[in-house]
C-alpha cells in the first residue's frame, strides 16, 4: 500500500497557496482599523517655536557677570561682594521685576556663580537665566 507513486511526486504545483497571503492581509487590515481612529482623535496643540537668534537686551534686564577671577559685574560695572545683595534687593522691588541674566566665565569656580544665585534668590528675584555661547 503505497501512499504516493512515482507519477505523483513528479507533478509540478501550478497554483500559489493563497492562504498565508490572505492571513497577512487580514492582520494588516485589523491593524489599520485599530490605529486610524487613534490618529484622527489626536489633540491639536500649538507648540512653541525655538529660534537661535541673538537676544535683545531689554531695559528691564540685569546682566550679572562673573569673570575668571570671581569678580562680579552688574551691567558691565564692577560690584563688590558686599554691595551685590543690596543692589539685587533694590532690583527686586522694581515693578515690573527685571530679569537677571547670569554670565559666568567657564574658568571661574562654580561656588561664585552659586553665591550670586543664592543672593538673587534671597533678594526675591524670580526670573533668573543663564547666558551661554553656542558650540560652533
Describe the overall structure.
This protein is an alpha/beta fold and 136 residues long. The protein has a domain at 61-130: 2-Layer Sandwich (Nucleotidyltransferase, domain 5). 38% of the residues lie in helices and 15% in strands. It is built from four helices and five strands. It has a five-stranded mixed β-sheet with strand order 3-2-1-4-5. Helix 4 (110-123) links the parallel strand 4 (99-104) and strand 5 (128-130). Helix 3 (81-92) packs parallel to helix 4 (110-123). The longest helix is centred in the first third of the chain and has 22 residues, at 19-40. The mean pLDDT is 82.
Give a concise summary.
With 136 residues, this protein is an alpha/beta fold. Helices cover 38% and strands 15% of the residues.
CATH secondary-structure class of the domain at 61-130: Alpha Beta
* CATH topology group of the domain at 61-130: Nucleotidyltransferase, domain 5
Our Rg estimate from Cα atoms comes to: 35 Å
Query: By helix and strand content, what is the structural category?
Result: alpha/beta
Are there runs of 5+ residues with pLDDT below 50, and where?
Answer: none
Largest beta sheet: what is the strand line-up? 3-2-1-4-5
Please write the string of helix (H) and strand (E) elements: HHEEEHEHE
Mean pLDDT: 82
Assign the CATH architecture of the domain at 61-130.
Answer: 2-Layer Sandwich
Instruction: Give a short account of the largest sheet.
Output: 5 strands, mixed
Number of strands: 5
N-end to C-end Cα span: 84 Å
Total number of helices: 4
Q: What proportion of the residues is helical, as a percent range?
A: 25-40%
Kindly estimate the percentage of residues that lie in beta strands according to DSSP.
Answer: 15-25%
Shape call: elongated
Amino acid at each position: 500500500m503505497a501512499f504516493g507513486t512515482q507519477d505523483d511526486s513528479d507533478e509540478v504545483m501550478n497554483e500559489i497557496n493563497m492562504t498565508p497571503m490572505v492571513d497577512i492581509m487580514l492582520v494588516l487590515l485589523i491593524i489599520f482599523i485599530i490605529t486610524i481612529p487613534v490618529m484622527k482623535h489626536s489633540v491639536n496643540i500649538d507648540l512653541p517655536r525655538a529660534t537661535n537668534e541673538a537676544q535683545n537686551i531689554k531695559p528691564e534686564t540685569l546682566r550679572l557677570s562673573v569673570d575668571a577671577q570671581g569678580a562680579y559685574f552688574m551691567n558691565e560695572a564692577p560690584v563688590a561682594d558686599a554691595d551685590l545683595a543690596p543692589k539685587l534687593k533694590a532690583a527686586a522691588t522694581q515693578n515690573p521685576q527685571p530679569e537677571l541674566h547670569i554670565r559666568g566665565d567657564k574658568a571661574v569656580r562654580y561656588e561664585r556663580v552659586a553665591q550670586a544665585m543664592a543672593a538673587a534668590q534671597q533678594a526675591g528675584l524670580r526670573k533668573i537665566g543663564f547666558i551661554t555661547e553656542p558650540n560652533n
